[in-house]
Amino acid sequence: TDLPGCGILSSLSILIIDYNSISNPSADFFQSCQKIRSLKAGNNPFQCSCELREFIQSVGQVSSDVVEGWPESYKCDYPESYKGTPLKDFHVSELSCNTALLIVTIVVPGLVLAVAVTVLCIYLDLPWYLRMVCQWTQTRRRARNVPLEERQRTLQFHAFISYSEHDSAWVKNELIPNLEKEDIRICLHERNFVAGKSIVENIINCIEKSYKSIFVLSPNFVQSEWC
């Protein structure tokens, strides 16, 4: 069932062991059998695994005259996915066979990702950006469900201005006239912002709550029921 090294049989030169039950030949067979001139070990139920990979590499390093029947009679018998595959065509990555390398490959990127996320959350306020992207996506999804006629009416404005009562004089006397000079169509809405929330959150909240509400528009444009 095995193809061991020569051991005390240091003068072994010819070995015929085909049609047996060898599944995992020793990887150092050719190193211990320095005087082997002919090996006939084909037609065995080879188990194609990481251990067999080293034996295949050893066969590739010796003369083709030494290993009789190679590669025709040397085929995988297990697992089923490789059954009938010639040993010379069996390949498995180093990552699959090296447990330490596999662990390092998985752990290191995980640690790097964890550190990167931590840095983004601490210094760049990543959760806030993700929340804004989520709200933007929801707004786009709602916009797709709006009928074309209403969507066209929505697009007649260039800007939505929501302001507090404290700033109403500046908006009406300074901001609006300057925007109108640039032919910018605007939609006005007077609303006090909620204290403690960011400017962007307040603006998004105003737009969502003001959907299909009546607005006071710039005096140079026709009024619309919503914008």
How are the elements arranged and paired?
Elements: E1 14-16, H1 29-32, E2 38-40, E3 46-47, H2 50-60, E4 76-78, H3 94-97, H4 99-123, H5 126-144, H6 148-154, E5 159-163, H7 168-181, E6 186-190, H8 199-209, E7 216-217
Parallel strand pairs: 1-2, 3-4, 5-6
Antiparallel strand pairs: 6-7
Describe the structure.
The strands form 3 sheets. Strands 5-6-7 form a 3-stranded mixed sheet, sandwiched between helices. Strands 1-2 form a two-stranded parallel ribbon. The C terminus is likely disordered. The chain folds into 3 domains: 79 residues, no CATH class; 30 residues; 74 residues, 3-Layer(aba) Sandwich (Rossmann fold). The chain is rod-shaped. 42% of the residues lie in helices and 10% in strands. It has 227 residues and is mainly alpha-helical. It contains 8 helices and 7 strands, in the order βαββαβααααβαβαβ. Pfam families: LRRCT, TIR. It is a single-pass membrane protein; Single-pass type I membrane protein. Its main location: membrane.
